[in-house]
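Forwarding the complex inputs:
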Amino acid sequence: MIDRHPWLDALAHAVLIAGILIVAFPVYVAVIASTHGPNDFMSGLVPLLPGSDAIANYSSMLTDGLSSSGAPPLGGMLWNSLVMALSIAFGKIAISILSAYAIVYFRFPFRAVAFWMIFVTLMLPVEVRIVPTFKVVADLGLLDSYAGLTIPLIASATATFLFRQFFLTVPEELMEAARIDGAGPLKFFRDILLPLSRTNIAALFVILFIYGWNQYLWPMMITTTSSHYTIVMGIKRMSDVADALPQWNVVMTTVVLAMLPPVIVVVGMQRLFVKGLIETEK
Amino acid sequence: MSAIEITGVSKVYAGGVRAVSDVNLSIADGEFIVLVGPSGCGKSTLLRMIAGLETITSGTVSIGSRVVNEVDPAARNIAMVFQNYALYPHMSVYDNLAYGLRNRGVPKADIDARVAEAARMLEIEPFLQRKPKQLSGGQRQRVAMGRAIVRKPDAFLFDEPLSNLDAKLRVSMRGEIRQLQRRLGVTSVYVTHDQLEAMTLADRIVVLNGGRIEQVGRPLDVYHNPASTFVASFIGSPAMNLADAEVTNGLVAIGGQVVASGVSGVKDGQVIVGLRAEDIQPAAPGTGVPFAVRYIEELGALRLVHGSVEGRHLTMALSPDLPLADEIKVAVAADRLHFFEDGSGRRMTR
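Prediction (whole assembly, two chains):
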């Protein structure tokens, strides 16, 4: 705002605070719920003050799991989610940065066609192609494996497109200077382009890690043994019990634990993330 | 250090655009050549073909008697300085200078020595550990020069290296580039659209227009004997005055007004006459051609007077001491006139 009025400032703050409350309140409820015993939810009222069972809830979920809903201990599921999210994030970044490099810096026949074909796959997210993809993964014998969990989700048109846009802003003279300095295509990529893309890679990593972590439909399709369950699936299984009341205290414990890794990633990479989205190092 | 030989070189882009047409040029070892011309004249394309960044449609380029048409830029042993410097933004100044040497497998101690020497020469020693972003435009320009020097190339190629600098810095860097090139004695090809840079830097100027060479020559030769109206209007500031004129029996008339007499060696008929601003001077009392003053530009040491003779716009450069009136009488020395063919614009021999 160019004009600064006290009441405009107040309005801006009011809107921001309202937004934060809307986002933060459910998180608060989840954290509070995870500190109560199983019987505190019978009344139908959600408690808003901390209870006394936090340690019991967390330790039991991390060690034993919840046998009544067939959920294994959380440690294994958290690990599966971590492996899946990291593989998807690194895989997507590796594949898309290489395809963007090929599309921007090399002249080859049907280059534009290749680009548009990648671009068109934006219209085909996992949910749309889930049945044929499942068939392919099943035929390849990849059910119940980390490869099956991650590989079908790795190709990324969005990331390719973002890297392409970034590469197009890198001055052509840099590539020419590198050519004269005796750097071949791979050397130029490794020594110049990759370091320049650092902040973009970090920003994408944050987004893609959360994308991978939050995957729900696909892991549910292709995992049948509890050793490959991911945490997001686990939450759903626990809250979806038959012939009993869901144990909301432990469900919320799981929710809080499931939220932590993405929070750690976002907080830890916040500065690079913001930098990667707003500026380029040129 | 090597001579560069350009023989019948043309460049036609995929769309059929002809950027460079049949250029022939011999550049001697250690010579400083400036390619000058308006934008789109093909000067950068020609430079980039020497560098190997642009393919050659026809003709040959050889550096030090080796034909390099198919040679990779890195193997041509040339160094290039770009207009936007093209420094690697994530590398320190030291790494920027060392990168090309490392890629060539030069031993580390040798790299250290060469970088130190170049840094001392260019006075960028205090900045070696900084990133390009932390440097001013002039300092970045020096780093770009340093990157060229450390390579000890056969030739320096400059692509408008000073046009991103402010006017004052441009003048001082111009001087430094000239001295550096003299000291190192490396063959240099320098592209610019600034005729002043061309005049001050070059051993020989190559004036390009529409992808063709208009004239090659030493700066003063080009200035005093422009080969065409294009060169005449491009080289020199203010530009040479050009006007349609009629020659009859040694009399030169602009719009019916005789401005000079006793001209020999020019056939009668329509011509284009060229006059340098400094060759038009106030006439002795009682003689001369009426000159209607329109406006005046004060340059300090000189005063540019814009006006007209018989409706033809002319500019003259006068000493600021002379008094001025709205209409003055001027005279032109017949032997200082340039004559160009009407139509082709080629210089007429006298």
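Residues 92 and 131 of chain B are 4 Å apart (CA to CA).
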